[in-house]
TrEMBL record, chains A, B:
Stored SUPFAM superfamilies: Tetrapyrrole methylase
Top EC class, one word: transferase
Keywords, ordered alphabetically: Methyltransferase, Porphyrin biosynthesis, S-adenosyl-L-methionine, Transferase
E.C. numbers: 2.1.1.107
Family annotation (InterPro entries): 4pyrrol_Mease, 4pyrrol_Methylase_sf, 4pyrrole_Mease_sub1, 4pyrrole_Mease_sub2, CobA/CysG_C, Siro_Cobalamin_biosynth, Uropor_MeTrfase_CS
Ranges where the Tetrapyrrole methylase domain occurs: 15-221
NCBIfam families hit by this protein: cobA_cysG_Cterm, PRK06136.1
Pathway: Porphyrin-containing compound metabolism; siroheme biosynthesis; precorrin-2 from uroporphyrinogen III: step 1/1
Annotated GO biological process: methylation
Domain of life: Bacteria
Name under which the protein is recorded: uroporphyrinogen-III C-methyltransferase
PANTHER family (UniProt xref): S-ADENOSYL-L-METHIONINE-DEPENDENT UROPORPHYRINOGEN III METHYLTRANSFERASE, CHLOROPLASTIC (PTHR45790:SF3), SIROHEME SYNTHASE-RELATED (PTHR45790)
Species whose genome carries this gene: Keguizhuia sedimenti
């Protein structure tokens, strides 16, 4: 397929779609997201986007703009610039982000850069990992009379952020990228008086072939999760109590 | 198409899929959800599931099990019973729920009833309305240095619940089914010292043809949202500040 590039000097930039890829499995993207991906001329994707997912856009030029926490934050400025440059070159540009683009995805900075350059944008939501993890473990995040509010949070790695951000006081707590930081979260929750046997579910590589589900207690979470290497989601709360004895062992 | 019913007395119940339909638009279901819907023999769906969505399963028997808040909670027991009965009759049963099935969806009760009856279950996540609303309004729910945690909550209509549940202390607050209750939420947030000009975005009928987006301030939310009639999502926080002057008017 020949790519329809914008004529040099035509002046009309392309349209950029910010699309949520979902947690990893290629069929957990939305129908709308898959349809646009199949039409994309260029796809700028995160490190968390799987190979299976990229097979939905065989026709597109693929640019990996992956960055993991720990790398310099200037990388985001470079991604913003790449997006603007791609929109000048191509008519249909996709920025494909793991999970949902509007939660923990630096979308604000990308939207701002594109808007300042006068580029048309559309956002297509994706399945955020917490909901895929709830589905995979068959544990609803809310439970009548037991869990009526849910908080999603992450740990900041930015040097100018206070490390000890207040923990949300919701019934259900979900910590994204919670591998190393979950130990500190557990310690603080215990200090706040949450019970040591509060159920915890940890999901690594959610929805992928190497998905790993671990059930433990808050007091055990305090001991750390050092053996996980992939993206880890930590879910804490009474909502994660086993429904029946057979459920507890899975 | 002839429906493959289980042989009476065959003893092997069907499989039940709890599927998230997403916010309403038929192409905001996942690829997996759409594929299973197209194979379903019977679909038990909420009142919030759109006609467009039901066109994805022309072959299926459709049973509306919709209930709106305000109806008696015994209705849920009846839905649980219907699910178990359908699994005895059909091989592929879909329980289609608006948004995501694992958040504010009474999934716990349905899972419990099905598990007790020994029925195989699979959960397919869906786009929860808050993420579709963030996409529609182009307002990320998190924002580097400004909004690092997000709470999803709803108002209880159960008679045995305390009406004045503590409001989550997250940076971004999203109240589901927030039409009538949002006024009280605003009043309490103001009393807690949140600023009167805190940005609020209200989305009615998210992702549907009659979607309505309204931008206001916390002090204005306190005056009420009486003119909305459809499902209303209320999003509150600094993350919803307009990025630029043209953005404010949309």
């Amino acid at each position: 397929m020949s790519l329809e590039r914008n004529e040099p000097g035509s002046g009309k930039p392309g349209k950029v779609y910010l699309i949520g890829a979902g947690p990893g499995a290629a069929d957990l993207i939305t129908v709308r997201g898959a349809r646009i991906l199949a039409q994309a001329e260029v796809v700028l994707h995160d490190a968390l986007v799987t190979e299976d997912m990229l097979q939905l856009c065989p026709q597109a030029v693929k640019i990996s703009v992956g960055k993991r926490s720990g790398q310099r934050s200037t990388a985001q400025t470079h991604i913003n610039q790449q997006l603007v440059e791609c929109a000048a070159q191509y008519k249909l540009v996709v920025r494909l982000k793991g999970g949902d683009p509007m939660m923990f995805g630096r979308a604000d900075e990308e939207l701002r850069a594109l808007e300042e350059a006068g580029i048309e944008i559309e956002v297509v939501p994706g399945i955020t990992t917490a909901l895929a993890a709830a589905a995979a473990t068959k544990h609803p995040l809310t439970k009548r009379g037991i869990a009526r509010s849910v908080a999603f949070f992450t740990s900041s790695t930015a040097p100018n952020q206070p490390e000890q951000m207040a923990l949300p006081d919701c019934d259900t707590l979900v910590q994204y990228m919670g591998g190393k930081e979950a130990m500190a979260t557990a310690r603080r929750l215990l200090a706040q008086g949450r019970p040591p046997d509060l159920p915890v579910v940890v999901v690594e590589n959610c929805s992928r072939s190497n998905q790993c589900i671990m059930r433990l207690k808050l007091s055990e979470l305090e001991q750390g999760l050092s053996h996980f290497t992939g993206p880890v989601l930590v879910m804490i709360g009474e909502a994660f109590a086993a429904r029946n004895p057979t459920d507890a062992g899975t």
